[in-house]
Amino acid sequence: MSDQETWLISLSxxxxxxxxxxxxxxxxxxxxxxxxxxxxxxxxIAINNYQGAKTELIFPDAENSDExxxxxxxxxxxxxxxxxxxxxxxxxxxxxxxxxxxxxLKDFISTAKGRAEKKYGVSLxxxxxxxxxSSQADPKDLLDLYGTAARITEQGDKGYxxxxxxxxxxxxxxxxxxxxxxxxxxxxxxxxxGLPKSSLDGRRETVLEKIDDKEKDKRIRRRLRMGKGEQLxxxxxxxxxxxENPDQFTPTTRIAxxxxxxxxxxxxxxxxDLEKIRAKLxxxxxxxxxxxxxxxxxxxxxxxxxxxxxxDVPFDAGLLYQGxxxxxxxxxxxxxxxxxxxxxxxxxxxxVSIWKNHGxxxxxxxxxxxxxxxxxxxxxxxxxxxxxKKISECLSDFARSVPETARKxxxxxxxxxxxxDDVLLMAPLDTVLLLADELRKAFTTTLKDxxxxxxxxxxxxSVGIVIAHMQTPIGRVxxxxxxxxxxxxxxxxxxxxxxxxxxxxxxxxxxAEMSFRAKWERDPAQxxxxxxxxxxxxxxxxxxxxxxxxxxxxxxxxFGYELRQIEQLVHDMEENEQAQKIAELEMQRILNRKxxxxxxxxxxxxxxxxxxxxxxxxxxxxxxxFDIESVYKEHLIARWLGAHGEERG
Length: 649
Known about the structure:
It is a single chain. This protein has 22 helices and ten strands. By secondary structure, it is an alpha+beta fold. It folds into four domains: 173 residues, CRISPR-Cas system, Cmr2 subunit, D1 domain, cysteine cluster (Alpha-Beta Plaits), CATH 3.30.70; 107 residues, no CATH class; 157 residues, Reverse transcriptase/Diguanylate cyclase domain (Alpha-Beta Plaits, 2-Layer Sandwich); 129 residues, no CATH class. Helix 12 runs antiparallel to helix 13 and helix 18 packs across helix 22. The radius of gyration is 27 Å and the shape is globular. This is Type III-B CRISPR-associated protein Cas10/Cmr2. It comes from Candidatus Electrothrix aestuarii. One of its GO terms (molecular function) is nucleotide binding.
């Protein structure tokens, strides 16, 4: 073989599930995503900087100097490169990439173990004959690394395209051909059989020695951000301790409460009330932090800013919820910590008048997961490495823009992961729809030119959103948002138009889960002049307009549930026109006798007109079939998205 043979190589890194989805806290989710990205970067750098042959990265974009820097941009977990050399060189390059990926993970593991033992005084179960730490913390066992190669057999774009197709087929086949390690001994033969399981996912045993109620052990729990009874396996400990600063991870409580804080700021005399909250928390911050009752929130910084976007109340803000505060008072009373108890009682006294003036904060927030549609088709249409690099560059540009977009004052969200066409973030309820729409438009715009060059339609963007309680385990929320994203892409049934859609799942603390799906854009033929609510709007824009009616208290909060009763009334009617007429009359009757949410004023005529027109528009969009079920579900979802103060669920 000639030394100047040209190859395409691929290195896939996983498993994504173990690194990302196994999580109880925002920190676990964020650092799992970050760790997988940094491991992928290490492999990409090793391939790009290989000394024994010429290499050229295609995915990720190595032309951008920031792409491979730590903490800058997330990198997807598949690396593609062009290599010049013989088969042995190709094998060595893949081997080098794998080794550097394992070494990077080993660094994270060593950092976490060192901090646990030396900085925090954590006792690990690492003295058994069968070392439980080593059994869980070996990078060779933790990482799935699949390397493949395809030789470019002829010059020009045709040879490149044919090699790329073979590489993709081989990569898929390799990932489906699992490596199985030697079968383990019988479980009860192991010295750690019967140990408590990790609280992150329940799959592996704890690596922590027993932590009891002694003062030292309480401090350890606070430092590890562990609740009572919580256990961590090796990777769980890495997620808690390998990061630089635990305060950079925004808790769900701070995301959920943000609309309430903004509402207070905008209210008459609201700045005074907000200052009272801030002063009370800052005055006693040290004591509350030591007691594990509160955490700082310093992350999510905009460029060139010293503080994060939550500086108005730079704490997790959980104590501003009555239920959380009352539970904290109960626990502190049991522990007989008189100083902290007095602080919490005074805080509660301050909050009583604020809750009365501004309502109580809503304990729900949104998690968003998005993915580009038909990216495989666009990549397949690329006939040369130049086109593939252009696609890679566009994806890099988009991913790099996502965190800053999320931080905008209009959205105040926190990006957890943005790599390629994948996005995972948390957002307040009142901004998540608009943020999703901006990301969708940015994604399509970023890829439009390269798609035009390849004579392809620009890829679209499917978004899944979960509305979840702030105390719901983050792992469950992560699984539900994956379900929502799949619903956005596939629809409820086979006849639904796939992809280019938004799906929302509401996961209430009590009550049944509910789902909603809408296409981002309406067929232009269905658009028509109309009222404020539905004039020239897509289904998603209409949902946002409905949510605004609830947010502005122009609709009673229980209206959606009364619409459900109408659905039961007309459900069995055979005459579609008759069912529609009765439903519209009932809707008008209900709204005419209802007051606006939280007030004594009647629902105004324009709002009633908008709501009826919206239901009629839904019928036109549904081929003249009246579907009151979709109308009431949309109102229920809009009510959740419009929540700003009152506690729900």
